[in-house]
Each structure stands twice: as C-alpha cells, then as structure tokens.
C-alpha cells in the first residue's frame, strides 16, 4: 500500500496544483489519527484522481492554525483550491462519507 506523503509547508502549493486534495491533519500522539490514515490509504487505491497528503500539526503549527485545525484528526477536502468539506474526529461512518463525496468528482 502506498504511503500518503507528508507535505508540510508545501500544502498551499499542492492545494492550488491539484483539482481534488484530501489533507489528513494528524499528530504522532493521536491514536484516532492512525485509524483515519488507514481509511485514507484504502481510498487512495480507489480514487486515483484525488491527491491525498498528510499535515503533521505539531511540526506545522502555523499552517494548522491558518487552516483552522483545532482538533485531531481533521480531514480537509479541497476542490479547485477551495475547502469544500471538513471532518473532525474519526466517526465510524467516515469511510462511507468520504466515498460519497469523492464519487461526485
């Protein structure tokens, strides 16, 4: 399974470069973040048109603040450079919700 790349300060460029971007905002100490990462890895195989990346909020506090990330895990979905969806936490139906959203693109 492919690893989801950590983007750090390149995030603003990536959001502009790709049509659809999912950002997994996480931290090493966050247990639910690991479950969310596994969900995204599975979806990455199915949705090849979506750029998936990770943002370690402990190492990128300024960017996390800029995007309003207050809780972990947080998933941000950008379409054409604009945030369209945001999920906080690791709800049991996260995979289903993401599939519904991504199937629209």
Description:
The chain is of the alpha+beta class and 105 residues long. The protein has a single domain, classed as 3-Layer(aba) Sandwich (Glutaredoxin), CATH 3.40.30. The protein is 36% helix and 25% strand. The protein has 4 helices and 4 strands, in the order H-E-H-E-H-E-E-H. The chain has helices spanning 11-17, 31-46, 61-66, 94-102; strands at 20-26, 51-56, 74-79, 82-88. A 4-stranded mixed beta sheet has the order 2-1-3-4, with helices on both faces. A hairpin with a 2-residue loop joins strand 3 (74-79) and strand 4. Helix 2 (31-46) packs parallel to helix 4 (94-102). It is globular. The two termini are 23 Å apart. The mean pLDDT is 96.
Topology (SSEs and partners):
Elements: H1 11-17, E1 20-26, H2 31-46, E2 51-56, H3 61-66, E3 74-79, E4 82-88, H4 94-102
Parallel strand pairs: 1-2
Antiparallel strand pairs: 1-3, 3-4
Give the CATH level 1 class.
Alpha Beta
Give the low-pLDDT segments: none
Biggest sheet architecture: 4 strands, mixed
Which bin fits the share of residues in helices?
Answer: 25-40%
The end-to-end distance, rounded to whole angstroms, is 23 Å
Q: How many domains would you count in the coordinates?
A: 1
What is the CATH topology?
Glutaredoxin
The CATH homologous superfamily is called Glutaredoxin
Oligomer: single chain
| Structural class assignment | alpha+beta
Binned strand content: 15-25%
Which architecture per CATH?
3-Layer(aba) Sandwich
* Widest β-sheet, arrangement of strands: 2-1-3-4
Look at the structure and give the mean pLDDT.
96
Task: Report Rg.
Answer: 12 Å
Shape: globular
Strand tally is: 4
């Amino acid at each position: 399974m492919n690893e989801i790349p950590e983007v750090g300060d390149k995030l603003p460029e990536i959001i502009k470069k790709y049509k659809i971007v999912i950002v997994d905002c996480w931290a090493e100490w966050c247990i639910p973040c690991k479950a969310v990462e596994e969900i995204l890895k599975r979806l990455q195989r199915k949705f090849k048109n979506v750029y998936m990346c990770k943002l370690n909020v402990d190492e990128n506090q300024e960017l996390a603040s800029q995007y309003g990330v207050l809780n972990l895990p947080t998933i941000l979905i950008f379409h054409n450079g604009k945030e369209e969806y945001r999920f906080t936490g690791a709800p049991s139906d996260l995979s289903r919700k993401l599939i519904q959203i991504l199937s629209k693109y």
